[in-house]
Amino acid sequence: MRKIRLRINGDLYERDVRESKTLLHFLREDVGLTGTKEGCGAGECGACTVFMNGETVNSCLVLAVEADGADLQTIEGETAEDGSLSAVQQAFARHHAVQCGFCTPGMIMTVKDLLQRKPKPTREEVIHGIESNFCRCTGYQQIVEAVLDVTGQLPDSEKEGLKYV
Ligand code: FES
Ligand code: FES
């Protein structure tokens, strides 16, 4: 066991962890942040994506001890303290880009990373930007539309029937 200290969504944590434990399992089992999902467990699907020191990582491929001293953001940090959803989360809801929801936390982390690097991505850049995250339900179209919408780039013809708050 080794003691680690890290910041997650702005809060400081100190825990004793097994040296072989992944960051994904640490977040879910030791900290209780179960928003981050385990899909493949092998760095292939993106379901476990979180921010670590400002960059996205597959938390299934990072050991918890490697995150000692790190600053993390998980999907739980995306929602405001009053429970209101972020603009990206609202766009996902508006476009039915969430179906079973299993890929959604990781997908939103990846979209957030994309928009930090490229605030107005083209449709092709969005498609390319989310290619590391697998979604088995939506066919990706709604996710791409949600990203274009949140960046103010959705053509008017595709906005019909959408509810904006
Ligand atoms: S669970 Fe980590 S990439 Fe699939
Ligand atoms: S919404 Fe089900 S896997 Fe993406």
List its traits.
alpha+beta; Ubiquitin-like (UB roll); binds FE2/S2 (inorganic) cluster
Outline the fold blueprint.
Elements: E1 2-8, E2 11-17, H1 23-30, E3 49-52, E4 55-58, E5 71-73, H2 87-94, H3 104-117, H4 123-129, H5 141-150
Parallel strand pairs: 1-5
Antiparallel strand pairs: 1-2, 3-4, 3-5
Helix pairs in contact: 2-5
One FE2/S2 (inorganic) cluster is lined by residues 38-41, 43-48, 58, 60.
Give a description of the structure.
- The chain is of the alpha+beta class and 165 residues long.
- It folds into 2 domains: 2-78, Ubiquitin-like (UB roll) (Roll); 87-155, DNA polymerase, domain 1.
- Helices cover 28% and strands 15% of the residues.
- It has 5 helices and 5 strands.
- The protein has helices spanning 23-30, 87-94, 104-117, 123-129, 141-150; strands at residues 2-8, 11-17, 49-52, 55-58, 71-73.
- Strands 2-1-5-3-4 form a 5-stranded mixed β-sheet, sandwiched between helices.
- α2 packs across α5 (141-150).
- The mean pLDDT is 95.
- One FE2/S2 (inorganic) cluster binds at residues 38-41, 43-48, 58, 60.
- One FE2/S2 (inorganic) cluster binds at residues 98-104, 135-138.
The CATH homologous superfamily of the largest domain is called Beta-grasp domain
Percent range of helical residues: 25-40%
Structural class: alpha+beta
Quick one: CATH class of the largest domain? Alpha Beta
Quick one: biggest sheet? 5 strands, mixed
Q: What's the pLDDT, averaged over the residues?
A: 95
The SSE order reads EEHEEEHHHH
User: Ends: how far apart?
Assistant: 48 Å
Strand-residue proportion: 15-25%
- CATH topology of the largest domain: the name is Ubiquitin-like (UB roll)
Give the ligands present. Answer: FE2/S2 (inorganic) cluster
Radius of gyration, in Å, reads: 16 Å
Q: Which stretches of 5+ consecutive residues score pLDDT under 50?
A: none
Per DSSP E runs of 2 or more residues, the count of β-strands stands at 5
| Tally of helical runs | 5
Task: Based on Cα principal axes, name the global outline.
Answer: elongated
Q: How many discrete domains? A: 2
* Widest sheet: strand ordering: 2-1-5-3-4
Give the name of the CATH architecture of the largest domain.
Roll
